[in-house]
């Protein structure tokens, strides 16, 4: 067995990958992984350089998650030359900005008994600045640092495998092989999903006036989290800007049954746009924390997460900055789950065996990536957090898509993710994309149907049912024999997990 079999979480996995270059390096990494490390191995440190005058973003975790202790953390932030950008007393997490090189040391000192941990949430300086309604201790204009580069090829959002065809306006349901593959067409004879069920689409925004989406958008619960991690409900804030990824994902989850275009998995349910991707393609921890807490606060039923949290593909618990981020994001996901939200996440497009992966050459992706050793304490988040459903991608013929991550005990279920027709921003049209990004929303849609039929089920019950109801698929060669071979029995293996999701079973 691999050295990764003792991962702490059942629903381990990874979100997604990126450019052709990243895909190639990831495949190389998994190919050499049999050299193996031992449990004693530590991950390679990733220094985060903080200097006076350089505006950085931090997560600061309270020892105890309550309003009083969180207020003490806020006090320590201010006493250390920081500004409180956003407080989340529900989870005892404070998002702070500071341009002081010694902020991390000082906030621990000043926080005395209240602060558990602090970590830089990016390796690059903050580009969006500090929200203007906060009183920055250094005055406006001091945050002029720019990050080194934008995320290549829109990074984990579009990736080399995702292409959009020319938009068309005609009804396209007959082309949706993906919907018949998961029996969504049969499920729709029973229900299209309930209007009371809301799916939070944590992504790059949903086109607000697309004729196949507009009626199904829950405007009141939509939000942008990309202004430093503070929720912004301003009209238009959650709309797409530089990426149509979220619009495509949304169409798969819940495009309307309205006589035009396509039909999503749960066309009767509603979707909230929770924008967590900035214009450079980054999903920083404070954006995702905002998104998860928001989903819990607004009692959403499901979230879809077709991304991994930047700038680290794997966040390592033995590195102080990364550990603090793991803690903060973990608290946000756990808290939202406790509010009744169930989460689906893409496994990633790097053709990597996530149960046996010991190197990462793509992080940090906001400054200069380094080649590093990773160990079993390094997690791809949010996909590897407890209770999150991790999804691999299949082709029209039921093969594992060549790019899809895989891993025994890591993948929960499989869903279609190659050449998926859905909604795009251009001309309010339609196009095809490929990626585990496209597979995860099928699962989010099935969970929305399941919640419609079984409104009393908890997130844990829904995950258990989803896994049990998945249609077993024995190991078979991947598309073009791409990536590490399949291992495990028909009932649960490294390519398909428990099997291909079953929308019909979910509504019975
Ligand atoms: Ca539009
Ligand atoms: Ca339609
Ligand atoms: Ca199974």
TrEMBL record:
Gene3D superfamilies: Peptidase S8/S53 domain (3.40.50.200). SUPFAM superfamilies: Subtilisin-like (SSF52743). Residues 1-35 form the signal peptide. Pfam families: Peptidase_S8. Keywords: Hydrolase, Protease, Serine protease, Signal. Residues 138-172 are annotated as: Disordered. It comes from the Bacteria. The active site is at residues 203, 245, 437. Residues 195-479 form the Peptidase S8/S53 domain. Belongs to the peptidase S8 family. This is S8 family serine peptidase.
């Amino acid at each position: 067995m691999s050295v990764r079999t003792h991962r702490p979480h059942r629903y381990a996995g990874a979100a997604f990958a990126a450019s052709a270059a990243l895909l190639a390096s990831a495949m190389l990494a998994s190919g050499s992984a049999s050299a193996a490390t031992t449990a004693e191995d530590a991950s390679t440190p990733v220094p985060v350089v903080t200097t006076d005058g350089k505006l950085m973003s931090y997560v600061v975790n309270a020892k105890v998650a309550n309003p009083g202790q969180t207020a003490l953390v806020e006090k320590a932030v201010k006493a250390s030359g920081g500004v409180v950008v956003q407080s989340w007393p529900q989870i005892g997490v404070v998002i702070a900005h500071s341009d002081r090189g010694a902020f991390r040391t000082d906030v621990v000192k000043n926080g005395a008994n209240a602060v558990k941990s602090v970590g830089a949430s990016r390796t690059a300086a903050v580009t969006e600045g500090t929200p203007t309604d906060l009183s920055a201790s250094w005055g406006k204009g001091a945050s002029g640092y720019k990050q080194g580069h934008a995320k290549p090829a829109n990074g984990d959002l579009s990736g080399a495998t995702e292409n959009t065809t020319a938009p068309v306006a005609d009804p396209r349901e007959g082309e949706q092989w993906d919907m018949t593959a998961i029996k969504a067409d049969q499920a729709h004879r029973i229900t299209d999903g309930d209007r009371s069920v809301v799916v939070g689409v944590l992504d790059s925004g949903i086109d607000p006036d697309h004729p196949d989406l507009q009626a199904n958008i829950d405007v009141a619960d939509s939000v942008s989290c990309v202004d430093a991690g503070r929720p912004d409900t301003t009209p238009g804030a959650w709309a797409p800007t530089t990426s149509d990824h979220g619009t495509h994902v949304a169409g798969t989850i819940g495009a309307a049954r309205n006589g035009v275009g396509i039909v999503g998995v749960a066309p009767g349910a509603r979707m909230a746009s929770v924008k967590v991707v900035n214009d450079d393609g980054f999903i920083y921890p404070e954006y995702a924390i905002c998104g998860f807490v928001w989903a819990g606060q607004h009692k959403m039923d499901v979230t879809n997460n077709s991304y991994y949290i930047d700038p680290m593909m794997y966040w390592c618990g033995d590195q102080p900055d990364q550990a603090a981020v793991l803690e903060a994001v973990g608290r946000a996901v756990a808290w939202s789950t406790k509010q009744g939200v169930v989460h689906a996440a893409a496994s990633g497009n790097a053709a990597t065996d996530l149960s046996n992966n010991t190197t990462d050459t793509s992080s940090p992706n906001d400054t200069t990536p380094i080649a590093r050793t990773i160990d079993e304490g390094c997690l791809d988040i949010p996909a590897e957090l407890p209770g999150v459903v991790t999804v691999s991608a299949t082709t029209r013929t039921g093969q594992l898509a060549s790019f899809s991550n895989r891993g025994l005990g890591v993948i929960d279920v499989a869903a279609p993710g190659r050449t998926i027709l859905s909604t795009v921003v251009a001309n309010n049209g339609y196009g095809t994309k490929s990626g585990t990004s496209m597979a995860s929303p099928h699962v989010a849609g099935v969970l929305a149907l399941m919640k419609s039929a079984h409104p009393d089920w908890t997130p844990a019950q829904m995950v258990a049912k989803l896994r049990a109801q998945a249609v077993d698929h024995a190991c078979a060669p991947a598309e073009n024999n791409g990536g590490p071979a399949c291992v495990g029995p028909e009932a649960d293996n490294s390519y398909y997990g428990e099997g291909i999701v079953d929308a019909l079973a979910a509504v019975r």
